Structures are given as C-alpha cells and as structure tokens.
Amino acid sequence: MGIVTVRDDNAYWQPALETQSRADWRRLQVDLLKAHLHHAYTGSPYYRTTFDAHGVHPDDLRTLDDLRRFPFLNKATIRERQLAVPPFGDLVAVPERDIVYISASSGSTGVPTASPFTAGDFDEWIDYEARQFWSSGLRPTDRYAHALNFSLFVGGPCVLGAQKLGALSIHAGTLPSERLLAVLQQFQVTALWTTPSYAWHLGETAVRAGIDPKRDLAVRRLFVAGEPGGSIPETRARIEALWGADIYDYYGLSDIFGSCAGMCAEKDGLHWAEDHILVEVLDPETGEPVPEGERGEMVLTTLRKRARPLIRFRTGDVVSVTTEPCRCGRTSLRLKGVHGRLDDMLIIKGVNLFPGDVEAVVRQEPALTGEYRLVVDRVEHLDRLTVEVEHIHGFNGDPADLRDHLRRHLKAATGVGADVSLLPPDTLPRAVHKAKRIEDRRSHVWS
Ligand SMILES: [Zn+2]
C-alpha cells in the first residue's frame, strides 16, 4: 500500500474496503486464504507435514467453509515447534534473512513464544493500526501517549500506527504513574493507550495527587486492551466518568498483531481486521461453529502474514460476534464481547462463569470501589464461590443489607449462588497492569 492521504473530516481511512458488502468481504477472504494456504504449504515444513497427514491440500479450499477440513493448532503447538526447530520453529514460511522484527509473549505460562514479521508484514500491520486508530476518532491534531511496554511486547509498535496517521506520538512506555501523569499534564495529551485496570489506577492516583483528570488533563480518548473490562459497560462507565474521556476497547494477540480489532465511535463492538485475519467462533468441545451471536472459542487464521502463517489458531478466548452492519457504516465483523479465557472460565456447580460477568454486577453498585476478587473453594465436596468486594470510603449503610443485595443481584445476573465478603477500601491487591481476579483453591482441596 502506498502513502494514503486522508482529510481530517473523512469518516474512513480506506472507504471502499471498510464499507464493502459482506459478500465482497467473503470474496476477498477466499482469495487471500487460497494464496496464504499455498504459501504456508510450500514455505513451512510444519504445514506441509501436517496438511499431508490430515489428507488436505491448499487446492481443496474453494469456499471459506472448506477451511474446516484443515487441522487446528494452539499456543502449545507454537511452543513445541519452536523448541523442536529453534529459535523460531518450522511454522515459519520464509528464510530467516527475510525476518526483521519479532515480538515475544511474556512467558508467564512457559517458554516465551516469538512472533516473527517480515518487513512487508510489519508495514501492513502498521497500516492497519493507522486505519483502526482513525476509526476510533484519532486525528493528526491529537497528542497521543502510548503507555504500554515496549520490551519485546507486540503492543509496543502500535504507537507507529498513530504516528503514521499523523498524530503527535509520545512513546511513553511503562513509566511510574507520577511520571506519566506529569507527561500527560505537561504536553496536554489528548489520547492515551493503557489497560483498563491501569486507566482506573492512574485516574485514582491522579485524584489522590490533587489532579482532577477531567479538569486538569486533556485526555478525551482512552484506548484500552488486554482485559475484558474495556467492553464491560459498567467498568467503562466508571473509568469514563473518572477521566471525562471515551474508552475505545481493542483486542490484540501476541502471536498475530498488537491490535486485531478495535472500537469505532459507535463503541458497539470491536471491528475486526478481516482483510488480515479470518475469524471462526467454535464450540470448544465439538469444534463446530456456534450460531452467530452465541459464545464460543475464537479461532483465527492469518490471511497475509508471510513470516509465520497461523492456520486455525485456537486462541482460548471465549467471544461472541456479529456481522450486522454497524451504524458507523463499516461492514466488518464485530466482536460483541470477549467474555474471558477458556482457562479463566470457572465452572461453579455446573454453571459457566467468567470474572467479567461478576464485574458487571460489582461495578453497578455505587457503594463499592469496583475492585473485586473471586475465591473458589470446595466445602464438603461442593463448590463455594465467595466474591470479595470493597465498600467505598465513608460508606455508612448497613453492611448486611449491601451483602444481601449483591448476593441477589449476582444470582439473578449469573445464575450462580455466591457468598459476598465486604472488605474495607484498599484491601484487595491493586493491579498495575493485568488484574488477577480469581483464586481457585479447589485443586488444593484434593491434593
Ligand atoms: Zn462501527
């Protein structure tokens, strides 16, 4: 793609692409997918061997449904192949001399996995980031601060999308909160990217330091990613009120792009980068598609990333999507919710529960700080869920009434009966970047 010149008042970055019909999206995806499967098969020993073993060939793909004949892979596959053929694994489909950038996952659950990019992959990614920022209302007149980690983290280079768009781009990184607040104040930053937990923490830190984010800071757009909170209305509303800013939720994946989807000004779901990534939403048990709008595991296939194609990558994220046209005029598939990780899905007395389901209830209650933790244990062979919450400073209601009210509200909203433990403010650990919301003590009961 060449240089794109877009006027500030244009609604779209690439109007023809962004507003094309669903049939045109499917045609585009089939064309890209055919070429991409051939590239994977001819370039990557892993894909050649695995496709052959499953009796499938890139020529077998005529429609998007035909993709279901191809095998899945997941994070463990990437890790295994990387250990088998170091350092990048044999999913890589280009010579190493063509690789110019890698990100690596944090490695909190094992050996970090590297995500390689060719120069072309990297440029296309940044083009997409610019388009996505534009759809969220970022303009060349904005002053944008990127407060994410740059160390091997795929979220870091997203700042280049803002820069490509023409915004003044401040590569802030993970500064201490006081320092970041000083930067926001000094440069009167208008847009900021961080995690939802950190946006909250930073806003509260500002207030404690005598800075009113609404009055003393100029931040009017907050981009967030990395946790479900950015799409939970109650969480959004509280962070937006604290900052006097609009929140735009984004979704990214260390193994593909820093962002793969993001909100437009309508803030009604996250528009997906469908010219780069194909989305399937499947029943995790059967591997069959769920009806549109229902919750299922998101499975992703890259369509043009040449360094390391990912074909049918099981993300472990439970999502719901829609292809209904958005009021903004864009026609891409939208994520309606990232409900949580399959790993974080608690099964309490047979009912599926995500931390986000509880968050929606907790953050509606003005007498609570909004912090919470789920503690699960097993008492006499029965699961017991305790939701720990904090009352606000100066709370003078009846604690028993509040606990009772929450118990009923939680039961009605989630179908799960829970105990509520009401704690004083500032008792629960504050997340600096990613909140740990679940303490499952059940395994210890049986060990
Ligand atoms: Zn939209």
Inertia-based shape: globular
User: N-to-C terminal Cα separation, in Å?
Assistant: 57 Å
Number of strands: 19
Helix content: 25-40%
Please, how many domains? Answer: 2
Low-confidence stretches: none
Mean pLDDT: 91
Q: Provide the CATH top-level class of the largest domain.
A: Alpha Beta
CATH topology of the largest domain: Rossmann fold
Widest sheet: strand order?
Answer: 4-3-5-6-7-8-9-13-12-11-10
The appropriate CATH architecture of the largest domain is 3-Layer(aba) Sandwich
Report on this model:
With 447 residues, the protein is of the alpha/beta class. The protein folds into two domains: 1-342, Rossmann fold (3-Layer(aba) Sandwich); 346-446, GMP Synthetase, Chain A, domain 3 (2-Layer Sandwich). The protein contains 13 helices and 19 strands. Strands 4-3-5-6-7-8-9-13-12-11-10 form an eleven-stranded mixed sheet. A four-stranded mixed sheet has the order 18-17-16-19. Strands 1-2 form a two-stranded antiparallel sheet. Helix 5 (119-135) crosses helix 6 (159-165) and helix 11 (355-362) packs across helix 12. The longest helix is centred in the N-terminal third of the chain and has 22 residues, at 22-43. The model has no long low-confidence stretch (mean pLDDT 91). Bound molecules: zinc ion (ZN). Residues 264, 266, 271, 326, 328, 330 line the site of zinc ion.
